[in-house]
Amino acid sequence: MTQTQKYSSTAITLHWLIALMIAVAFLVGLYVADLELSPWKLKVLTWHKWTGVTIFLLVLFRILWRLSHRPPEMPAGMSDLMKKLAHLTHLAIYLLMVIVPILGWLHSSAAGVSVVYFNLITLPDLVGKDKALSHLFGELHENGAWALVGLVGLHVAAALKHQLVDKDNLLARMRW
Amino acid sequence: MTRLDRIVVAVLLLAGGAAWGSGLVPEKSSLSFVGKQMGAPVEGRFRYFDGDIVFKPADLAHSHARIDVDLASIDLASDESESEIKGKSWFHVATHPKAVFESTGIRALGGDRYEVKGRLTVKGVTRELTLPLQVHSVGGSTVAEGSTVLRRTDFNVGEGVWADPDSVALEVRVNYKMTLKP
Q1: How far is B143 from chain A (nearest CA, A)?
Q2: Domain B20-181: what homologous superfamily?
Q3: Nearest CA of chain A to the CA of B42: how many Å?
Q4: pTM, entire model
Q5: Which CATH entry fits the domain spanning A3-174: 2.40.128.110, 1.20.950.20, 3.40.50.300, 1.20.58.60?
Q6: CB B33 within 8 A of CB B74
Q7: Of A7, A83, B40, B178, which is most buried with the most CB atoms under 10 A?
């Protein structure tokens, strides 16, 4: 493989870092949703919010990076339909990576709880306190997170298919 | 009623209307608060409260205020938080459904500023406090508003695991705005 067929090391780092953080945020989110209200729950919930804000910022940077750095071409052996599906999946993942944290932020704002990033920066409340809205945003945040994880599952399955079935060594593009 | 009586009543009513506000208009009044959980501001309010307020700037000795707050009417925009705060560790509304403020004296501070001394009872604990008040007129009604900071643990609100100030701060800013009947 030549150099142009690989992602840039910045893109590779962002990819794996964000993947890891999304996995952590997702699992912590599932865990905290089932906890009884307690000081521990408030702590974990706060960490979950900080993780979410960090992911959001990294994703914004990643989108700027992606728009300004041409990614490697898709493998030549792929049909146009498969290429289109892969692009759509990537686009949907990007969209959800932006939307899910915003839904979490909306959920918190509507619950009357401001988000204070690392106890330092108070994020503006996106909406006023409203119980019904808070509940709705909570549901959407959760469903969005499940959709994101589902798409990531599809993404992983496709990558493994390329690696193990097509044997086109696609994963090498995402290695440092 | 003689004619003279009628005039006297009319004059008294007019004078009364101009000189003081009495009674409370709950739908034009608000009682909200801002606490902090894990360092992040949390807003809430009480939907229902009522009061008996007589406010005469020219006769503060005969002015007084009593506010009854229905603690179960708390709005925290989350069923989970609301059921927790009504529970034993917090307000314990089953045994202490109301918080009551009863004034003991009102003092003019000059201009539109006043100071109300009184007793606040929450969860069976009564404490003296002094509330700053700014009074102005809105469309013929008297509006008295201000804010103060209460320490929730002074009233045993948030006991046990919740006594830890790191998860929920002890200080709570309470904002009040009372519109009086014209």
Answers
A1: 24
A2: Lipid/polyisoprenoid-binding, YceI-like (2.40.128.110)
A3: 4
A4: 0.86
A5: 1.20.950.20
A6: no
A7: B178
